[in-house]
Amino acid sequence: MPDTGSYPKQTHDWEGVLAAAEENAAALPDLTTEKASLRQTLDKARTLKDLQASHQAARQETTQNLKETLKEGRDLASQLRDAAKFKIGRRNARLVQFNITPLRPRTKKAAPPPPEVQSPKPAA
User: Which domain holds residue 14?
Assistant: First the structure.
């Protein structure tokens, strides 16, 4: 029994085994139960593969919907922040609740201390 791994190889192998069993039905008459079980498993595998493909399509569609919703939410949050900034004022500290840094007055930098003048050493 070969371990073919992938779905197409596996189902192709099963179809080949079923075809061989059909061709040799006269020599192997008591394999009807095994053939029926393999045929049922093959049908189940195909159904599950189709279901997997539909789930993948649904997952992609859900991902697209999520991306659109997140974009819409970002736009709405930005509008709400802009409205809060307008209503409250750009300098109000409550803007921090909206994750907005309020405008603050610039601080004046302290003037650097004047450089110390070194007196020249007298020549000896």
Answer: 8-98
